[in-house]
Each structure stands twice: as structure tokens, then as C-alpha cells.
Amino acid sequence: MTLPTFWRDLLNQDRPLIMGILNVTPDSFADGGRYFSPEAALDHARHLVAAGADILDVGGESTRPFSDPVPLKEELSRVLPVIRAIRAELDVPLSIDTYKAEVARQALEAGAQIINDISALRFDPDMAPLAARTGAPVILMHMKGTPKDMQTDPRYDDLLGEIKAFLKDRRDAALAHGIPPEAIILDPGIGFGKTFAHNLEILNHFDTFLELGCPLLVGPSRKAFIGHYLGGLPPEERDIGTLAALAMAVLKGARIVRVHNVAYAAQFLTLLQAIRQA
Q1: C-beta of residue 55 within 8 angstroms of C-beta of residue 86
Q2: HSE of 98, CA atoms in CB hemisphere, 13 A
Q3: Predicted local distance difference test score (pLDDT) of residue 30
């Protein structure tokens, strides 16, 4: 299977890509309810693209720790109007953040082009065949447990080894369905079944996952571990700390950064890239 043109063009960029987060939910941890209406979501999408987003990631179900699943019909009613509105106005690649194949299918039909699956194709057996059939790139994330229980005392005998083995297994499952390696993005899942110390270790050894041969995504934006190490800052004040996490991950091979504050990330990455290329 050949790569979609838009994805090949993105991968040909000689810099990290910025994925802007667009939560169409009433209860996300960092911006709960702020962009819940289609009008507010479209306006925020405009701002994210103007600030430098290469991709927009649209999600209709919060996967914050201890969150409950959202019914299929409700998730569809949240994301489809937003995807259609963005696609009608903005020429930007769209990702659908879901583990439900039916949501992904309808989102792709509405104009999304990438599937961001926190379950790494495990929760819905129809997801991998859908990605293979449509040619949509897939983001496969490591998560220990489910959002409801993932932060209940997560433990590992070998943190990096276990995450790497999991991602290798999910990569191989995607390959077995005919998804090419360049269309498989791997995400070690910062904050998804990890302690604060685990998150630091993953960032410090992010290059461990380069051996898997797929583009790597990092998503530390505004997460609780940043607030913890910065003296209890609330989510909306964690953007500067987020940049420190991005720096380590990018210097160790991250190709995509998933962030709330696209403007900060764009400025930061522009200067970092200039320094690296000097």
C-alpha cells in the first residue's frame, strides 16, 4: 500500500510536526468544555492552524485518568459536525482521537485522515482492518489498563522494555493487516498508566523506541506530572513545563509533538531547529 500524499509530504518535513489538540468534550482535564460547541471548536481550530499546527487531533471522549467511556452516539454527535466544519474551511490534516472503529469510519468519511487510537488497535477488532482498507495512518499508544483504572498504582518490572515490547507487538499487528511502517506512528503514552517518575524516565530515554523503525509521537502537554514537579501548577499554567518535556523528546527522536499551546510549541521548535542546524 502506498502512503497517502498528505502523509508523505508531512514526513518529508525536516522538522518535528505539531499536532494541535482539539477536545470536543465537556470534561477534558486541560480545557474541559471550552471548545465543546462546534462554533467554539471551529474558532479554536482556526487559531491552532494560524499558530502553526501541522495536524489537528479531534477527540470527543476524554481519556483523562478515572474517566468513563462515552456512548458511541454521543461521541459521533460531538466530533462529526466539527470535522465537517473544519474540513469545509481549513486545509489541514485531521486526526480522529478514538478507539471505536465506527467513530473512526464516520470521521474519515467526514474528512479526517489519521486515526489516533489510545488502545493501539486492541479495543475494537474492526479498527485495524479499517485503517488498512482506507490507508489512514494510525497512531498506536501504549497504555497500561484503561483510562478508568490506568492510574491505580501502575507498576513495571522493566518500564522501557515493557513499553517497547508492547509497541513492537502492536506495530507488528498493524503490519500484519497491511499498514505500511511509515504510516504507523508509535506513542509511549506519557501519563497513561505511568507514575510521575515513569514519565520522566520515558522522556529521558525516548530514543529507546527509535529502534522500532516508526515515527514517534510524544504527548506530555499540560499533564499532571508537569504540575507536580513545578509545585502544583494547574493545567493552564503548565505550558512552559511542557516545552521542557518536548525538548528532551525531540532531541531524542520524536517526530510529532501533541500539544495544547501550538504557538508556544511552534516558537520553541523553530529556535531549537535553528540551533541544531547551525
Answers
A1: no
A2: 35
A3: 59
Domain over 5-277 is classified CATH 3.40.50.2000: no
Domain ranges of the chain: 5-277
Looking at the DSSP bridge assignments, the partners of residue 58 are 22, 96
- Chain CA centroid to CA 145, Å: 18
Rounded to two decimals, the pTM is: 0.95
Alpha-carbon gap, residue 94 to 90, rounded angstroms: 10
pLDDT tens-digit readout, 228-268: 999 999 999 999 999 999 999 999 999 999 999 999 999 99
Which residues lie below 8 Å from residue 39, measured CB to CB, with a gap of 6+?
none
Could you list the active site residues?
A: 223, 258
In contact, 258 and 21? CB cutoff 8 Å: yes
207 in Cβ contact with 162 (< 8 Å): no
Report the distance separating Cα 42 and Cα 168, nearest Å: 36
Site of grid cell 474519515: 108
CB-based burial label for 278 (10 Å; 0-12, 13-18, 19+): exposed
Note whether 239 and 220 are within 8 A (CB): no
> Do the beta carbons of residue 22 and residue 221 sit within 8 Å?
no
